[in-house]
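Thread: quick sanity check before group meeting

JM: Hey all, I'm pulling together slides for Thursday and realized we never actually wrote out the predicted structure for the chain we discussed last week. Dropping the sequence here so it's in one place. If anyone has concerns about the input, flag it before I start.
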Amino acid sequence: MPVSEKEIRYGFLSKGNYKLINSVFKIALPKNIEKLTCYGAFYQSNLIGFTTLVEHEKAKYDIKFLEVLPIFRNIGIGSKLLTHIVSFCRFNNGKYIFAKYNSLNHHIKFVEHFFIKNDWNIPSYDYTYYRLPKGLFYNNFIQKHFNKDETQAHEDLKVVSLNQLNGKELASIEKKTKLLPRFLSPINLGASVSSELSLFAFKDEEIIAWLPVSKPINTNEVSIKSIYVREDYRCSALGLILCYALYKKAEKCSFFSNIKWCSFVFDKTDKRLRRLHQGLFKSYLDKDIDYYFVSKNI
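JM (edit): ok, ran it. Output follows.
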């Protein structure tokens, strides 16, 4: 359909018209997000593209969606939507705007070119997400790799959950690990962390490994935020011991029967972590997604 960009009009969408997005793009906007702004592109009164913006504190804005119907792409509609939404942020004294995207729903090189063309900062890799079925996590992974006799080499190892640590122990852990990258931090992961499933391993009262776990997502997924073992204790099966302990601990939780998936989040730019996760989990994966981040100072 040959359409000129001049035939397209742009404007804000009221909440009453959010259902248009669902009917045209099959995307349901979250109902619980406050300060959501939606801006649309229209051709002959039909919605053909849209973008949504969420305001955060300290004059930060987050683009949640930016979509254009395939038949109307490559004539500048996406760029015009982006320009309008940046102008809206600037008018409202915004200082910073960002967006996240992933390799599952986007062509990474195309998205990178799109943002650079529109004078945004160069997009950067954020993290990788692996997911495998719960049954495979235990039957095909733990039972295949884990030798229970290995625990005998760690008889003095103490494994406890986050809710078993006292204030002094938490402060000590935070002090010793504060210089690590955020994705390896065992403490500063927010309220989403499960206090009963996140595990910490101690030897001679010193923390040597941890495995923070998020609360179940939609009641059917448990996500391991990181598996970290101190350098001088690596190659000693501690990571497997923690995974085994996690599974056995989760079995005792009331929500265990609802769990279908076990997922992992890690930084694949760390070559050691990439080799570890790919070597252990790659053949069992249901999902393998890379996430990216892009921003612009206004």
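AS: nice. The first strand starts at residue 8 and ends at 12. The CA atoms of residues 39 and 237 lie 52 Å apart.
JM: adding both to the slides.
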